[in-house]
Write a structure and sequence with these properties.
Radius of gyration: 13 Å
Structural class: alpha/beta
Distance between the termini: 19 Å
Number of strands: 6
Number of helices: 3
Oligomer: single chain
Strand content: 25-35%
Length: 109
Protein backbone atom coordinates (compact mmCIF):
# COMPACT_ATOMS: atom_id res chain seq x y z
CA UNK A 1 0.00 0.00 0.00
CA UNK A 2 1.22 3.51 -0.74
CA UNK A 3 1.00 6.25 1.88
CA UNK A 4 1.41 9.92 0.99
CA UNK A 5 2.32 12.36 3.75
CA UNK A 6 2.59 16.11 4.08
CA UNK A 7 4.80 17.38 6.89
CA UNK A 8 3.88 20.88 8.04
CA UNK A 9 4.25 23.13 11.06
CA UNK A 10 1.58 22.67 13.69
CA UNK A 11 -0.78 25.53 14.44
CA UNK A 12 0.03 25.37 18.14
CA UNK A 13 2.45 28.30 18.57
CA UNK A 14 4.23 27.25 15.36
CA UNK A 15 6.31 24.78 17.34
CA UNK A 16 6.79 21.25 16.11
CA UNK A 17 5.50 19.54 13.04
CA UNK A 18 2.26 17.77 12.20
CA UNK A 19 1.93 14.97 9.67
CA UNK A 20 -1.13 14.54 7.49
CA UNK A 21 -1.29 11.33 5.50
CA UNK A 22 -3.59 9.52 3.10
CA UNK A 23 -3.62 6.36 1.03
CA UNK A 24 -6.40 7.25 -1.38
CA UNK A 25 -6.57 11.05 -1.51
CA UNK A 26 -10.06 11.01 0.01
CA UNK A 27 -9.53 10.06 3.66
CA UNK A 28 -6.93 12.09 5.55
CA UNK A 29 -5.49 11.42 9.00
CA UNK A 30 -3.30 13.54 11.28
CA UNK A 31 -0.47 12.22 13.46
CA UNK A 32 2.40 13.78 15.38
CA UNK A 33 5.06 11.18 14.52
CA UNK A 34 5.83 8.81 11.66
CA UNK A 35 5.74 5.94 14.13
CA UNK A 36 1.96 6.51 14.37
CA UNK A 37 1.41 5.96 10.63
CA UNK A 38 -0.17 2.47 10.24
CA UNK A 39 2.25 1.32 7.54
CA UNK A 40 3.59 -2.23 7.62
CA UNK A 41 6.16 -4.38 5.86
CA UNK A 42 6.12 -3.91 2.09
CA UNK A 43 4.30 -0.55 2.23
CA UNK A 44 5.72 2.64 0.72
CA UNK A 45 5.61 6.11 2.26
CA UNK A 46 6.06 9.17 0.06
CA UNK A 47 6.50 12.53 1.79
CA UNK A 48 7.40 16.07 0.83
CA UNK A 49 10.20 16.62 3.35
CA UNK A 50 11.87 14.93 6.29
CA UNK A 51 12.55 17.34 9.18
CA UNK A 52 15.36 16.33 11.57
CA UNK A 53 12.79 16.06 14.40
CA UNK A 54 11.14 13.12 12.61
CA UNK A 55 14.29 11.16 11.80
CA UNK A 56 13.71 8.67 14.62
CA UNK A 57 10.14 7.98 13.46
CA UNK A 58 11.28 7.34 9.90
CA UNK A 59 14.03 4.99 11.15
CA UNK A 60 11.37 3.08 13.07
CA UNK A 61 9.34 2.72 9.86
CA UNK A 62 12.44 1.46 8.04
CA UNK A 63 12.92 -1.16 10.75
CA UNK A 64 9.31 -2.29 10.23
CA UNK A 65 10.07 -2.88 6.54
CA UNK A 66 8.42 0.25 5.15
CA UNK A 67 10.08 1.93 2.16
CA UNK A 68 10.38 5.64 3.04
CA UNK A 69 10.82 8.23 0.25
CA UNK A 70 11.05 12.01 0.26
CA UNK A 71 10.68 14.48 -2.59
CA UNK A 72 13.90 15.61 -4.26
CA UNK A 73 12.56 19.03 -5.32
CA UNK A 74 9.90 20.78 -3.29
CA UNK A 75 9.16 23.09 -6.23
CA UNK A 76 7.40 20.14 -7.89
CA UNK A 77 4.57 20.36 -5.35
CA UNK A 78 3.91 23.97 -6.27
CA UNK A 79 4.01 23.10 -9.97
CA UNK A 80 1.54 20.23 -9.54
CA UNK A 81 -0.77 22.38 -7.40
CA UNK A 82 -0.92 24.94 -10.20
CA UNK A 83 -1.44 22.30 -12.90
CA UNK A 84 -4.26 20.56 -11.03
CA UNK A 85 -5.68 23.77 -9.49
CA UNK A 86 -5.28 22.48 -5.94
CA UNK A 87 -5.39 24.68 -2.82
CA UNK A 88 -2.28 25.35 -0.75
CA UNK A 89 -3.32 23.07 2.10
CA UNK A 90 -2.10 19.77 3.49
CA UNK A 91 -4.78 17.96 1.48
CA UNK A 92 -3.84 19.81 -1.68
CA UNK A 93 -0.18 19.01 -1.14
CA UNK A 94 -0.95 15.31 -0.67
CA UNK A 95 -2.98 15.22 -3.88
CA UNK A 96 -0.07 16.96 -5.62
CA UNK A 97 2.34 14.35 -4.22
CA UNK A 98 0.12 11.61 -5.60
CA UNK A 99 0.46 13.03 -9.10
CA UNK A 100 4.28 13.18 -9.04
CA UNK A 101 6.17 10.26 -10.56
CA UNK A 102 8.10 7.98 -8.20
CA UNK A 103 11.40 8.81 -9.91
CA UNK A 104 11.27 12.29 -8.30
CA UNK A 105 11.46 10.78 -4.82
CA UNK A 106 14.66 9.74 -3.05
CA UNK A 107 14.61 6.59 -0.95
CA UNK A 108 15.69 6.93 2.68
CA UNK A 109 18.35 4.41 3.71
Amino acid sequence: MKFYADVHRSKRNGEGFRITYSTDGITFRHVDSFSEVPAGPGDKLFMDTLPPQHTDGSIELLRKGVEVNYLRRLTLIEKMRREHKLPKTARGDIKALMSIEERWFRRVT
